[in-house]
Write a structure and sequence with these properties.
- InterPro entries: DUF983 (IPR009325).
- This is DUF983 domain-containing protein.
- It holds the Pfam family DUF983.
- With 136 residues, the chain is mainly α.
- The chain has one domain.
- The protein has three helices and no strands.
Amino acid sequence: MSRGSTATPETERPTGQAMWRGTRGYCPACGEGRLFRGYLKVADHCPTCAEELHHQRADDGPAYLTILLVSHLGAPLLLASYIAWRPSAATMILSFGLGAIVLSLLLLPRIKGAMVGLQWARRMHGFGDAPEPATT
């Protein structure tokens, strides 16, 4: 039996679309309801399509990815600015410290939303147990 057979009643969920919706802070199922009810607190269910979102288990993944991205973006910029302008140590600490904090705060909810979208699309952690919601 091939992997692409129609033996399972589950329809394929578009991973890219679900992750993009999560990145923007919307429900991965319908793309209309808000995914978060706070800065990082995922809503228990979507207010628009009633998709249960409490199954998500993003845990520390978004934090690790945020640290990875911020450090890999910041390190080359830090080296390039030091070579180009030779700023003082205090200037470097203040500017790159503030930049890392701001970038981390901006990236963290977006990465968490994308991770919740990935879990929903791949039916991870109980997301595949309920029937499909009606999408528009």
